[in-house]
Amino acid sequence: xxxxxxxxxxxxxxxxxxxxxxxxxxxxxxxxxxxxxxxxxxxxxxxxxxxxxxxxxxxxxxxxxxxxxxxxxxxxxxxxxxxxxxxxxxxxxxxxxxxxxxxxxx
Length: 106
Hints:
The protein is mainly alpha-helical. It has one domain (16-105). Helix content is 50%, strand content 9%. Helix 2 (40-57) runs antiparallel to helix 3 (72-85) and helix 2 runs antiparallel to helix 4. The radius of gyration is 19 Å and the shape is elongated. It starts with 15 loop residues before the first helix and ends with a helix.
């Protein structure tokens, strides 16, 4: 059985502006420069979708036309799949929960 540990952050003084500056609050969610996202999870889902579109784009007739790299489409697909696996969704959920709790303490 998985041992779920609880992290008590109530004793910590977190300056939200210092730690949560990658995405900024907007009227309907959060924004990254000009990209609108609801929260960290939404940002990562959009990033994953971008990588998935790149992987799907490799499924065309011209993707293997590179003279110096054997099977470039295989190399590109492998790297994009790895990048998609590196997206830290559980950490994003944790960051969203920390932000929500800290904002609730204000």
